[in-house]
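It is worth pausing here to work through a concrete case rather than discussing structure prediction in the abstract. The textbook approach is simple: state the sequence, then state the predicted structure, then interpret. We follow exactly that order.
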Amino acid sequence: MSLALKPHAPEMASPLSAPLELTVGEIHRLSPAQVREAVSTMVAQGRMPLATAICEAALALNPNSEDLLVISCLLAEVLQDWARAEELLIQLVEVQSPNTTAQTWLHLARVARCQNKLDEAWIVLDFAATRFPEDQMIQEELASVNALIEPSIETQMT
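Step two, the predicted structure:
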């Protein structure tokens, strides 16, 4: 039996091609890439609670899927659930290791920064800068975090 997915109504059809009638119980029938696309569409439509439930169900079935970890992390970031985003990014680092991408490190540092964990953000960025010395975004983020940390260090010394 195939999974037939259809929009609610023709006038509400999204230009994106992911399903609109997907339920948590149907997740096991979809590949991680299909779930990623469906969640992306749901986010674009503002259907955050359903997108979150779909991500959680899909991750329960495929906890080491890069597709699912990435979309789940991005969703957590959109929702400003920094603790969950950090947890997912750490899991993604473990899955990608030893080939963790510059983008993964950058997101991990930014999530730490959003939680006001500047020391952790600096450690992540310093490490990422050694792995990806030519990555301009990492260099810019490191400089930005340095600028925030330096006044704090000067204040502590006086």
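Step three, interpretation. The chain has two domains: 15-81, 101-158. The chain has seven helices and no strands.
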